[in-house]
Amino acid sequence: MDEGFDALVAEAAGVEVVGWDFSWLDGRATEERPPWEYQRSMGERVGRASMSLDIQTGGGEVVAGVPQRAAKAMVATESWPPNLARAQENLRDKGVVVVADEDRPPLPFADGTFDLVTSRHPVTVHWAEIARVLAAGGTYFSQQVGPDSGHEVYDFFLGPQPVGHSDREPALARAGAEAAGLEVVDLRSAELRMEFFDVGAMVYFLRKVIWFVPDFTVEKYRDRLEALHERIQADGPFVAHSRRFLIEARKPG
What we know:
CATH architecture: 3-Layer(aba) Sandwich
GO biological process, one term: methylation
CATH topology: Rossmann fold
Number of helices: 9
Domain Methyltransferase type: 53-140
Strand content: 25-35%
GO molecular function: S-adenosylmethionine-dependent methyltransferase activity
Shape: globular
Number of domains: 1
Largest sheet: 8 strands, mixed
Number of strands: 8
Strand order of the largest sheet: 1-7-8-6-5-2-3-4
Helix content: 25-40%
Structural class: alpha/beta
CATH class: Alpha Beta
Oligomer: single chain
Distance between the termini: 64 Å
Protein name: Methyltransferase family protein
Keywords: Methyltransferase, Transferase
Radius of gyration: 19 Å
Order of helices and strands: HEHEHEHEEHEHHEHHE
């Protein structure tokens, strides 16, 4: 294997992966953006809200990038300590209160507290809790990872995996929202092209988005990484497809 492989892998293996800022991948990987422009659309709703809550905020990057502010207060929750510290750092000067939460019921808020609840790429969605903390007439607005998203990546590293049973189907989200008493007012899906231009980009991605290959380490998957490096050099970018869906649900009132 050429020295370029070792240099790319070593560089990517040493980069910090806390938070949800993917700017290190600029020029090294791309992913299409969904047509509904989640952050802009979220900002419009925040600007109309009195009290807003962002669940599983990660490092707070999405909320920090929204220029609008809710009239009374903005709150965000996060469970993973490194992300929690990054979110507090990113949101402190934005006037957003960041609360440690274990991502399982109950949310640490009173019934009917928020007229807007948002979440970008939640790992889990506890619909009954969302409905509980929403005020009457309040809205849940979320972009979520769709079924079998990026399966080309984990198929490459783990071998062909079953598809069609990811528990991330939009229809299941609709059913969960409605079972909690919410009215789904918008549900849209998109398939988006992903490209990885070098093996270092993939190493960084798998270190950061750990559920793709849960046991990933450079040492354990070195053979597959070498094969990927050779494939990219011979054929160009490694292409995969992410899937996203947007759901907006309202609490009657």
